[in-house]
Every structure is written in C-alpha cells, then in structure tokens.
Amino acid sequence: MAKIYYDKDVDLSLLNGRTIGIIGYGSQGHAHALNLKDNKVNVMVGLYKGSSSWPKAQEAGLQVDTVDQVAKKADIIMILIPDPVAPKVYKEAIQPNLTRGKTLMFAHGFNIHYKTIVPPSNVDVSMVAPKAPGHRMREIFTKGLGVPALLAIHQDVSGRAKEVGLAYAKGVGCTRAGVLETTFAEETETDLFGEQTVLCGGVTSLVKAGFETLVEAGYQPELAYFEVLHELKLIVDLIYQGGLGYMRYSVSDTAEFGDYTRGPRVIDDRVKENMKEILTEIQNGTFAKEWISEHDEGRPRFNRLRQENSDHPVERVGKELRAMMPWLKETL
To answer: Which residues of 260-284 are buried (b: 16+ CB within 10 A; e: fewer)?
Structure first.
C-alpha cells in the first residue's frame, strides 16, 4: 500500500531560515514560487537575463536574479525548466554553485533517471512532482486547497532529505491533497507512459480518428466535433469525480451498453501490445534518447508535427465553434 502524507504529517518549519531558488517561471515555476511566498517561505526566482518572465515575477513581488546567482544564494534549488533544456543550464549555472549541504530538487524525474544530470555526491537530491499543470495548481492553492504530488529521494546525504522534501511539498500546498512516496524511476516511466498512451497521445489520436471516421462517412464536421471532442470533458469530469463506475451510472443505459460491448473492439489487445512496446521504449531509454536528439537538432520533426496537428480539421472546426461559446474562456 502506497504511503501518503498530509499536512498533519509534515513540519513546514524545516524551511525556516532557508532560501529556496526556483529555476524557471513558466507554468510550474510561477505556481511553486507564489505558493511558497504565500506560505511565508523565503523564495527567489532564477532566470536568464532578458527573460520575458523577469518583470512578471518582479510584479508578483518575488526576488529575481540570474540562475547562477540564485543557485549560489539558495539552500534548496528546484529546477522547473523543460527537460531537454535543463542539462545545459545545470552544467553552466547550477553545478558550479552546488556546495555541500544544499538540496537539488526536481518536479519530474527525467533528467536524473536518464542521467542527463548527474549531481555531486555531497548534496541531497529529491523530487516533488505535483500532479496538475501549474496554473491549475496555483488556482487550487488560492482557494485553500491543493493538488496531489509525488515525492522521491535520489540522494539523502543529510539524513533529512525526505522531511525537507515533504516540507517543500507542504509549502506549495500539495500535502493538503496528499503526497505519495515513489522513486525517480517509477515517476518518470509512469508519467511518460500516461502522457504518451492515454492522457495526451492516446486521447488526441482517438479524437482525431473518431472525427475523421464520421466526416468521411458524410456527417457534418460540426456534429462530429461535438460528439467526439466537446462532450469528452463531460465524461472525463464524471470519471474524475467518481471513477469509471460513476461515469457509467451517470450516462444512459444505451451508452453504458455501447461502452461495454464496443469499447474493447476499439481499444483491443493489439492496442495493449502497442502500449507495452511504448513502455519498453520508455524503460530502456529509447524515447529519452530520441527526444534529446530531436531537441539538439533544432526540433525539426517536433515543429513539423506541431504544425500538421494544428492544421487538422478538428482544430479548425473547433476554433470556429468555440468562438461562439465565450463562456469557455472562463474555465481556462
């Protein structure tokens, strides 16, 4: 049974007298920094000179400096920049300032697990990985709630890496919802698998295939959009609230029967075999090498695929329909 920690299990005072350096001020970075600041933790934001985020962070009342200066001053350094960018920034600006007794933290295990960053042996290395986009994490925090997170320890030189990691998790509000203990390897591999096969890759491919099937059969693209994309949120919200059973309870018996009898014909054993192949590529590092190489080469395939998918008919139709539903902007 997984061990889960909540507010009552954690001592936030472990962060007293420590400076936390947040490297990056994107979706995750802004949420971590602002949540810590609201919890009276001494926090700084590290950015490169000329970053468009620099004035944004200052306007939010945060101390801002270059990455190397923040790494030098901080006792705890949380890296919240993209995975393929992090190794270069780490080598140039963070590693020279990692002195004995400091803590290096991550919100995703990618760089540690695939050894694109190898910390010195005299610092604690831990991970607090919130299970939500940063903007959602910040929104929930301001309402007095929190999003769940994962905690992992890679190096425990001080003997208190776990306690400090949990204190950090409390500082960003995650112990309000629960923090589950795991490992860098487990977090990395399950996170990539979930993104690629279900949450992002699986869902988007399923939506496009369903849209194309209906349009090619002669149905109006607008109706196809509503049936395979727009209503997806309604179903996901029901699953999120009460699991698959609650969703099936909430839909019609006709929909439930179709779920049981037709769903397995679409997502069949062949799909599961493909998922196993993808998991193997994640476990053996094939995907990591491919993504790192893609980034190093200037992301030609990534950019081509991004453009092709933004031009897909489901996106064009959806943009037109969403323009007639201004209330959707209120949920973003």
So the answer is: eeeeeeeeeeeeeeebeebbebbee
For residue 237, what are the CA distances in angstroms to 53, 226, 232, 242? Answer: 32, 16, 9, 9
Please tell me what DSSP assigns to residue 229.
I
- The structure tokens listed for 282 are 């994640």
In terms of Cα–Cα distance, which of 129, 135, 88, 74 is closest to 106? 129
Burial-class residue 297 by CB neighbours within 10 Å (0-12, 13-18, 19+): exposed
What is the dihedral sign for C-alpha 109, 112, 115, 116?
A: positive
Phi first, then psi, for residue 21 (nearest 5°) are -100, 120
50: left (phi over 0), alpha (psi -120 to 50) or beta: left
Known catalytic residue: 295? no
Ordered per-residue pLDDT tens for the chain, 332 residues:
778 999 999 999 999 999 999 999 999 999 999 999 999 999 999 999 999 999 999 999 999 999 999 999 999 999 999 999 999 999 999 999 999 999 999 999 999 999 999 999 999 999 999 999 999 999 999 999 999 999 999 999 999 999 999 999 999 999 999 999 999 999 999 999 999 999 999 999 999 999 999 999 999 999 999 999 999 999 999 999 999 999 999 999 999 999 999 999 999 999 999 999 999 999 999 999 999 999 999 999 999 999 999 999 999 999 999 998 888 876 54
Tell me how far apart the alpha carbons of residues 281 and 242 are, in angstroms, rounded to a whole number. 32
Bridge-based pairing state of the strands 179-181 and 103-106: unpaired
Could you say which of 108, 113, 135, 154 is catalytic? 108
Q: In one letter, which amino acid is 325?
A: M
* Chain center to CA of 269: 29
Those residues whose C-beta lies under 8 Å from the C-beta of residue 111, and which sit 6 or more positions away, are: 79, 83, 86, 87, 90, 117
**Roughly how many angstroms between the first and final C-alpha of the chain, as a whole number?**
35
